[in-house]
Amino acid sequence: MSAVKSIESSAVEAQMAALGANARAAAHALAALPAAAKRAAIEAAADALAAAGDEIIAANGEDMAAARAANLNAAMLDRLALDGGRVAAMVDGLREVAHLDDPVGRVLAEWSRPNGLRIERVSVPIGVIGIIYESRPNVTADAGALCLMSGNAAILRCGSESLRSSSAIADSLRRGLRAAGVPENCIQLVPTRERAAVGILLAMDEDIDVIVPRGGRSLIERVKQDSRIPVLAHLDGICHVYVHAAADAEKAREVTFNAKMRRTGVCGAAETLLIDRAALAMLPAILAPLFEAGCEVRGDEEARALDSRAGAAGAADWDSEYLDAIIAVRTVDGLDAAIAHVNRHGSHHTDAIISEDQAAAGRFLDEVDSAITVHNASTQYADGGEFGMGAEIGISNGKLHARGPVGVEQLTTYKYKVHGSGQVRP
Questions:
Q1: For the chain, what are the domain ranges?
Q2: DSSP string over 203-223
Q3: Cα Rg, the chain, nearest whole Å
């Protein structure tokens, strides 16, 4: 048995080494590619993806059947599922990326020194980006296009539950790149379900410049703990809607419902509703459509006193990312208490205030320590496409390099170009 495992391990190591070498070569070629060529390649990939729609949906059907047999929960099944509309959305997302401004080669700053040196800070690709993700096969298309437009080669490691779907998507993208005359190894998918591949990927620091994990807490924590490569990640999406004392009741009801129920399995879904004690009279009308839609409400004493259908919230509920039709409701004594709660229990992802008081809203937006703060709108706008950034690789709630939606601009770094006329340093 150990000999068999050794052979299998060696095969995976060889596969991963080939991916790394191919990606590094592709990144070198891609860095010199002009914007027009990158755009043409992404458009060709979009055409190939559209043409492969039936093939992709059929592969997804096999993944969905296996996922149901494995008793994956409803949130995971929703993330995994593809239909004609979602495939069309992927195609549209690629075309949006193709029309973005080229983030590479921008002069970010320029100045001259007294000795005559002229210095430029210029945006450049990061190089090779390793992306590890769970469930959502559409990430294959989004990440591939974003990396290509930002001049980076991508090594993609999808979840085992989506390998058939993601492989069909990746194959179509690579066909498009070939048709456009761009190295197909700019986008590569790890072709195995072997768990060892992830550990190998995290140690490929000579070939990969940054790792982007996108998934649940266990995946993110493992990557951050084990990676020898810099990590750009978000952890949880514990997002809040705070109904302030000066909230408009209709906005509070509609925004809360959308923030929770539009899609419960996305990281921008609201998990906690904070209600100002001065606005408690609004709570029954806010909760009514949630109950009607089958949402479970877990409330504090004040919330349960206003609607007996609410269950009791425990201490763990304030720190939970449900990714399901569940919401926790807590009463707070004013703006300061709401801000304190969000900063203590949130995950620094996306948090919203509903208020007609501009000064109060301004304080919330400034003082809540999250990547995205929102006034009078749903937390589910936490999305690169909704920000006008095209697709996104994920939402980063860290504070270094990139924060919030990670789009093409966030997938670049910079270098300094120094122009002289023969200067030597004394």
A1: 13-232+406-418, 239-381
A2: T-TTT-SEEEEES-HHHHHHH
A3: 24
In angstroms, the CA 214 to CA 216 distance is: 7
Give the CATH H-level superfamily of domain 13-232+406-418. Answer: Aldehyde Dehydrogenase; Chain A, domain 1 (3.40.605.10)
The answer to whether 83 touches 59, Cβ cutoff 8 Å, is no
Q: How many of the other CB atoms lie within 10 Å of CB of 66?
A: 16
- Kindly list the averaged pLDDT for each block of 10 residues, start to end, along the chain of length 426: 54 94 96 95 98 98 96 88 96 93 96 96 96 92 95 96 97 98 97 93 96 85 93 85 98 98 92 98 98 97 96 97 95 98 96 98 96 96 83 78 86 94 93
Return the CATH superfamily for domain 239-381. Answer: Aldehyde Dehydrogenase; Chain A, domain 2 (3.40.309.10)
The residue written with tokens 């999406």 in the block is 237
Q: Are 132 and 201 in contact (CB under 8 A)?
A: yes
Instruction: Give me the residue label for tokens 């939402």.
Output: 395
Mark out the alpha helices in 158-266 (DSSP H runs). 163-179, 196-202, 217-226, 249-261
Task: In whole angstroms, give the CA distance from residue 327 to residue 241.
Answer: 11
Distance CA 336, CA 240 (A): 15
Collapsing DSSP to helix, strand or coil, 141 comes out as: helix
DSSP result, 360-401: HHHHHHHHS-SSEEEESS-GGG-STTTTTS-S-S-EE-SSSS
State which amino acid sits at residue 322. Answer: Y
What is the pTM (predicted TM-score) of this model? 0.81
Query: CA separation (Å) from 204 to 23, 129, 173?
Result: 12, 11, 24
